[in-house]
Amino acid sequence: MDEQDLDRIIASCHPPPDILAYNPPYEVLFHAKGKHPQRNIFKNQVFSEKELEKLRRLKDEIKKQKLQLPKDWDDSDLLKFVYGANFKTRGAFKALKSCLASYSDVFPEDYMLIYSKIYEILLTGPLYMHGRDCHYRPLLIMNFAKFDLKKYTFEQYLQAACFVLEFASKHMLFPGKVENWMCISDIGYRGLSDLPLNTLRKITQVLQDVFKCRLAYSAMINTPKTIYFIYSCLKPFLDPVTIDKISIAKGNVATNIIKYFNPYQVEERYGGKSPNLNVFWPPVFPNYPVALDDYDEIKPLEKKNVEKYNEPESAPFEMHSQEIIDVEEINNAMDEEILNTDRKKKSKKSKKSKRRKNKKIKETLSDIEPGDINLENIEPLRSSPQSEKNQTQELMFSPNENIIDEINREVHSEPIEEQADPNEMLIDTTQNTTMCSLDIGLGQKCVIS
């Protein structure tokens, strides 16, 4: 493909002229859902005091570490890493370093230099762009059923994915108005044995590192029963802000995504009215308005049986309206399960500790070695009030009544009273007090009352 053809492709990808009159509403400027705050539009914006303070801290860290940034970057680019790390400076700096390293690995020089290497992959459609929503955001389709690692290598797929998104960043967006894309991930009902999880994890990590704060919303469709495990494998490579934007659908229509689109901007297989593509490059932007004027005119489509690995036909929107599962609920369930597991572990440890403690308390005097007893360290214990039913008897030690003369190895009593016979044990049941004699191995016997 010559340069003139490439120039025509670039021109066809630019936002339509009426975007000049478009002003993004608040819900487009900011993503208000989920647990973490998120700004979607960064260019040509007035930043808050908190944002400026976090930017200052990040720039101080960059200066301290002497990190070299691209020449065309400004504060708006750095602020994306602040949001991606949930306003934590160390996390933002770490993500920034990872981004620069990943970008240089994928694109050693100009990203257009790899175009000829991945051109054939782009035609097969593992990921491609089609249409815009009512806020002019392009729609990214990721079709995992199209990944064929027997024909192409992981590096080629990674380069293709980064090329498409870098191309979109350069030519499909509009600074200050459109800075994000929507995404539909078509799993194709593939299970664990059919999906290249290692490849998906690596691609997810690189895309997460390089294209910060570019995702507006994402939905997984045509999902198998093992989708939650598959998602749990990819989740560690996503920042908290991105996780809040992902949802999972059980059917083949992502209602929470499609509701933003004019139906003529979406392919039929995904619930729209635009013809399905067979060739996936160059990007397709149907010659229809992006407004939702005739959205209500969509007629329910016939639901057809879908076989595994085949791309299913579209189904009625209303059939799937209750099937969208917010990932936040999944996260909460996982967190609750982790907390319950931690509680059980702590409970088991506590019970073991109590058993060990009770075992020590229940040791009889006959179990104590003679050399372990030191009467000088024994302190008086006072018995607590006991009910008539309480049969527990306490040994009451009174060191003031027993003094050991270590020189003479004799035991005396103060005040002087008639000493008990050491060979006898007297149990006074009326006073609930036990008197016994204890041979401590010192040649004499000590009376404990």
From TrEMBL:
InterPro entries, sorted: CRAL-TRIO_dom (IPR001251), CRAL-TRIO_dom_sf (IPR036865), CRAL/TRIO_N_dom_sf (IPR036273)
Domain CRAL-TRIO: 117-278
Region Disordered, annotated ranges: 336-365
SMART domains: SEC14
Pfam families in alphabetical order: CRAL_TRIO
Basic residues: bias regions: 343-360
Protein name: CRAL-TRIO domain-containing protein
